[in-house]
Structure formats: structure tokens, C-alpha cells
Fold:
Amino acid sequence: MTLPADLSSLLPALEDLARQAGAAIMEVYHSDFAVKTKGDASPVTAADEKAEAIILPGLAALTPGIPIVAEEQVAAGHIPDVGDGPFWLVDPLDGTKEFVKRNGEFTVNIGLIVNGVPSAGVVLAPAQTLLWSGADGKAFKVDAAGARHAIACRKLPAHGAVVLTSRSHNSPDALKTWMAQFPGASLDFAGSSLKFCKVAEGSADLYPRFGPTCEWDTAAASAVLLAAGGLVTTFDGRALAYAKPKFLNPDFIARGWA
Structure:
């Protein structure tokens, strides 16, 4: 299939898919669910599996023939050859540790990679009834009341930047050293891909990540951030690339206006 020239035309269908997956996740969230451990020692629940089972056929119908790399499929050994063409990256439930803690900071993530760049993405926080989406230089936030707002990153302030870090995965020593270059910077915490979205909407400025992530953890939210005027780079300034071996990311920085 040839993708539409206007990738933002895909967003309504992607948002609908994310909401369907989010509804399945919330059914599990409000139940007495079990937690299993995958081969990499990360947790997984029925919510991860049910959400992915909704998203995959939806994407296959929306864009026939475009490969889909999805977290639970990869864990089961089903890894498509993405070649050098466009492909989807899906994390049906990013922030499973936050889901298990029942703190509401988990997300559904659907991202499209074109020419190695996150080019369209939707991030849904179902427990917070918030959604972010972006493509073609346009980014949006849908609030809990259902109102849709255009969003953009803010300019990095000369003093008092807001730096985000993970609730469950952080490296305090490395983070403290890195933050020293930003006078008066404050630190805030958020789970899952919400950190990218906060930078995209202009409520935070920087999200440095020290430690391993996978491409499906970052693709959708990176697409939103890029559409909002931000960027994601490695610590040596290169754009974070996709379709890497084993889909593993190096350390990176998500930031506002380039």
C-alpha cells in the first residue's frame, strides 16, 4: 500500500483504535488482574495483550501490507522484516509498572515510521482520558472534556527549565550531573510516554533518558513531539534513528524547540 501524502489524514482512525484499546485496558485495570513476567523480566498483563489484539487488525485494515512491529508480538518471537520502507511501531500499554501500581500514568502508543523518522503518532492515557496526536507538523491534545487543542513546544527558558524523568526508570546520578548545565532547572516525574507529551504541549522542556528503551516505547510520542516542533536526539546530537538492530534505543534527549 502507498501511504497518503497527508499523513495527518490517518490520525482520526489511529485515535479511534487507541481509544478502543484504551477501553479494553481500563476493563482490566478495574479488575483483579494477574501480572506475569516476560523473558526480559518486564511485567505483562491481560491489558497489554487485549489492547494489542485490537490495534493490530485495525492497522492491518487501515494500511494493508505495511509491517507492524508490536511489543507483545516481538516478545512472542513474531518480528517482521521492515526493510527500508514505512512500518508501524506499537506499544499497546507503555508503563505497565505504572498500570500495576494503579497510578494512571500509562499509555497506548501507535507510531508510524517513514524514512526512519517518526512521522505520525497517537498517544492515549486512558485512565486520564487524555490523548495526544501529531503528523505533518501539526500536533494536538484532546482533553478530558473531549475538546481538541493545537499544541506546540515552548522555547527553552534561560532559567528554570522543567526536566522530566521516569517514575520507575531513572538514573539519579547521571541526571543530576546532566541537569547542572541548566540554571535553576527543576525536576518533575511522569510515567510512560507522557514525558514526551508534556514537552510537546509546552508544560515541560526536557526529557533525558539514561538507560535502555525500545523503539515502540518512543515512536508514537516522538512523532507527536516532532509535529509540535521538538526533536529527539542522542547525547551526541544525532536524530534518534529507527529500524535499529533489535529495535533498541541508545540514551537520548527529548526537547522542545530545536
Remarks:
- Helices lie at 11-29, 46-62, 71-75, 96-101, 172-179, 194-200, 215-227.
